[in-house]
Structures are given as structure tokens and as C-alpha cells.
Write a structure and sequence with these properties.
326 residues, mainly alpha, globular
Length: 326
Amino acid sequence: HEVALEAYNIASSIDNPRYTSTILNRLGEFELDRGNIDSSLWYFNNAIGLDEKSNHTYGKARTLTNLMAAHRLKGSFYEAEEAGLQAIDLFKSIDRTSSLIRSHQRLANLYMEWNKPKKSIQQLEIKLNFKQLSKLELGRTYASLGLLNYSIENYNFARDYYHQARNLFDSLDRKAEIAGILTNIGNIYIKRNEMDGALDLNKESIRIYNTLGDMKKTAINYHNMGLIAERKGNYSEAIRFYNKSLDLKDTSSYVANKSLSQFNLANIYKKSGLNDSAIYFYRNVLEFRDTPLSAKMQSNWNLSTIFMEKGLLASAQFYQKLYGIL
């Protein structure tokens, strides 16, 4: 950082705007890495003026890319979008294909974070037009398009993109990516109530993850299999799979979605009239910070009804109050 500051002072003294802009960008990147977003924006905004002064198109596009990153981290999505679109136009004007590909990906990532999946899809579909994409990059882009289309319930498009991704990953023998695609296609089958197909895909995914020793992802597949068994009315199998999922998540210190497995277990025990077990798991659900709000609300409501049935009015009222607060 001190070297960069000294270089900036030297560059300023000899009136070399291109070189000074490069130093300002480096200083801005340093501040951004340290989490000093406002300081980084000061450096990048000053660099833009120098890029324009020196008529340096590539330099301005580079600075705009940094501005986009800073605004994104600050949560200023409109400003980040504007900078990203300007960078794309500039890279396009000087035929910088590799930079252009990365810019479309960055803008797609911004839209994902901004919860604008349709705009993200547009950027990734533009990216697909570049022949310079490697097979791996192409496969990952198809996989992202599958995920985005799934999120907006375009299940046919999602399935088609996932299949294209799988074909590419198969040709590259990318086993982890293949297993992930199988899981995602299985999720589409679950949404369509095609449970037998979903079960087969999750079993195949587990087989691959087991060869890779990836217990985190295997736990997700067992959770899905529990959901499938529950939907088919096979509660004993569902309980077995959900517990298997929880056991694997414990051994791998993996807690994402753990609350949902416990929530589903609690629901099964409640349906089966095993209220003491239901109470245990509903209370566990409320302990997790990552539990979705809807699951917390339903847990509080179900706990209140269970205690009401037991004649424990004080406990019932306690959870009714929590339900109202949430």
C-alpha cells in the first residue's frame, strides 16, 4: 500500500494520467479488500476522470468494473448495474472478448444477488454466444441457467439446461458437478410430483458423492429422499432418511438446511400422533438461526396447538405469543 501511494505521488508529479489511473485502481482494490468501500470509491471515481482525460477506453472499462464491485458490496445495485453496463459497452467497442465474457458473468452475479433472475438469465444467455468458452465454463453456465430457471418455475427450461450441463460434465468426467446436476434435476421431479424418478436421481447422486467422500452433499440427498418418502405417505422411511441426513450433517459439521430436516420430522411425528417427539423437534427448529421464517412460525403454531390439546394452557399461550411476534 505504501509503495502504491509513493508510485501515485510520482505519477501525479510527472502528469501521466494512464499510469496514475492504474495506481489509483490498485489503491482502490487494496481498500476494497480491507472492506473500506467508501475509500475505494474515492480512488475509482478519481481514476475514471483520468481515464477520460487520456482517452483510455480499456482503462476506463477496467475502472468501471472496479466501481461495479464496490457499489455491489455497498448494496448500491443501481449504481453497480450502470457501471457494469458501461464496462460491457466499452469492452465491446475495443473487441476485448475475454473481458467481455467476464463482464457478462459479473453482471449476471449482480442480478442474482439483487434477486432479478430474469435479468441474470439474459446475461448468461448472451455469454453462451461466445465460442471462446471452455467446456467447463460452458457447463457451469448451463448449470447456472438451470438453477435460475428453476427459481422462477420454468421447469422445462431448467431441465433442458441441466441436461446440457450434464453432457458436458460427463465428457470431462467432472463427478462432483454431475452429482449436483442429478440432485437438481431430482428437485424438478419433486416439484412435478414424479417421485420415483426423483428417488432414482438422488440415489445415483449419493452413489457418486460416496465415491468422492462428500458427506455434506450426501446429507442433502438423504433429506430429499425423506421428502419423497413423506410425499408418498411412507412415514417410517421418511423418518429414516431425515435422521440419516441429520447424522451425516453432524459428522461433517454441516448445518445448512438442518433445521428443515428437523421441521419435516416434527411434522411427521405430529401427523402420527407422536406429540412428544414432535415437540422435541419443533423446539430444535426454533433454535436454529438459519431456519426460514415460515418454518419458525409454523413450529410455534403447531407447538401451541399440541400444548392446547394436552391441556397445558400456559405453554400453549407462550408459543401463541411467539407466533404473533414473528
